[in-house]
Amino acid sequence: MHKSEGLKALMLDVIKLHEEEYGSSPVAIGVAPGTINLLGEHTDYNEGYVLQFAIPKYVWVSISTRADGSFRFYAANTNERKKSPKGPFKYRREDRWANYSKGVISGFSGRGLEVPGLDVTIYSEIPQDIGLGSSDALCVAATLAIQKLLNVSLTDADIISIANGAEKDYMGLPIEVTDVMTSLKSRDGKAIYIDLRSMEYSYIPLRLEDAILVGTNSHVPPVEVGEYVQELIDDCYTGVGYLNTRHPGRTLRDFSEADVKASLEIMPEAARRLCLHVIEENSRVVEGKKLLEKKNYPLFGKLMSQSHESLRDNYEVSCPEIDWLVKRAIETDGVYGSRITGPGFGGCTVTLMKKNALLEYTEKMLEYERIFGFSAEVFQLTPVGGAFEYFTHQ
């Protein structure tokens, strides 16, 4: 169990919420951190590379068994409730947030591990819909809680498959394993570098000394991006089709900038820019890993800013509010680099800066609110360890 006093105190709060809602104590609890992308945006569904870490904001899922075999779901943050009869479950749009837990339960059933009726309490510290992996963390936490309840030993690969499958298979969302894997396998003080083709990964120390990583929630109203992301995925494979006229490849991972330039006469401009972003972003991740290992933060920051420019101009997933935040960050003395993080269209930025630049950057948020009418939230980001679970009692 994590030793943080803050986490212990919050665990007691979650137990109390569960007891007040259901009249009994939870038997098992899963806890999973949110995640943030340093580099590697929209590379995951192209079998590319990502560089991420887990953040000290968590989702808690507490569970206890029910004698009647039915399922009750309680979202403590919003005081909402959902219920379902005995499985097998079917996805229901009206179940909204409860579908993530239902998808996880279905994942266990699909492996021949029957889950008894449950009372489920969900509590989240992670802001939703801003690219911090809130739903992925929920699925990881639910998977670990049920694993503990059933007293089974799943491999990490099984946990990742069940948690990701809840979103990708059960809910039909265009979600890769990236955030689930980072939420589960992260380590304190380190970033994780993942190769999405081989699924190999490694850790890079992220002890920044006189520098800090800062997240900024733009508070731009969230939009449903699932359909648009699916269009981007389809467009990437259309781009592969053009590039395959030169030489064979499975995904954009298999091509270079030179391949794109050699296909200019047959490839539409929009497809060209899409392909260039993914190919160049993969190169930025590979180079960024080396720079972090050398603690070369000025050059790493430049890669972050280049990534944002490409996401804005080539992939077209930014928005005026985010562009303003990134521009003002880069104009601040002591800032190394800044970029949008997550799928896009609002959400959050991540910025690498010297510690003494934070005050000046934060003061600029007053101007942001005057211009756009949204209050930006600035918070420091510290890499933490991955998800965990435990019995509260037996």
Could you please describe the fold and organization of this structure?
41% of the residues lie in helices and 22% in strands. By secondary structure, the protein is α+β, with helices and mostly antiparallel strands. Strands 1, 2, 3, 4, 5, 6, 7 and 12 form an 8-stranded mixed sheet that branches. Strand 9 (335-341) and strand 10 (348-354) form a beta hairpin. Helix 2 packs across helix 4 (156-170), helix 3 (134-150) packs across helix 4 (156-170) and helix 3 (134-150) packs across helix 5 (178-185). The longest helix has 25 residues, at 269-293.
How many E strands? 12
Q: Largest sheet, described in full?
A: 8 strands, mixed
Structural class: alpha+beta
**CATH class placement of the largest domain:** Alpha Beta
Provide a count of the helices. 12
Number of domains: 2
Uncertain residue segments? none
CA distance, first residue to last residue: 16 Å
CATH architecture of the largest domain: 2-Layer Sandwich
Any idea what the radius of gyration is?
21 Å
Helix content: 40-55%
Outline type: globular
Mean pLDDT equals 94
Topology-level CATH name of the largest domain: Ribosomal Protein S5, domain 2
How do the helices and strands follow one another from N- to C-terminus? HEEEEHEHHHEEEHHHHHEEHHEE
Q: Regarding quaternary structure, how should these chains be classified? A: single chain
Percent strand:
15-25%
